[in-house]
Amino acid sequence: MRPGTPHLALGALSGVLAGFASLAVAELVAAVVRPQSSPVVVVGGAAIDATPAPVKDWAIRHLGTDDKLVLQLGILAVISVLALALGVYAMHCRRVGAAGVLLFGALGVAAALSRPDSTGLTDAVPSAVGAVIGALLLYVLVGLLVAVRRSRATERELENDGADLVAAVPEEWDRRGFVLASVSVAAVSAGVGVAGRSLNSSRGRDAIASRERVVLPLPGAPAQPVPKRAELRIAGISPFVTPNNDFYRVDTALVVPRIDVTAWRLRVHGKGVRRPAGYSFDDLLRRELIERDITLTCVSNEVGGPYAGNARWIGVRLADLLAECGVKPPSRGGPADQLVSRSVDGMTIGSPVEDVMDGRDALLAIGMNGEPLPFEHGFPVRMVVPGLYGYVSACKWIQDIELTTFDSYDPYWAKRGWARRAPVKTESRIDTPKPFARPRAGTVIVAGVAWAQHRGIDKVEVRIDDGPWREARLAAEDTRDTWRQWSFPWQATPGGHTLTVRATDRTGRIQTGRRTRTIPDGASGWHSVVVTVA
Ligand SMILES: Nc1nc2c(c(=O)[nH]1)N[C@H]1C(S)=C(S)[C@@H](COP(=O)(O)O)O[C@H]1N2
Ligand SMILES: [Mo]
Question: 97 CA to middle of ligand 1, Å?
Answer without folding.
Answer: 42
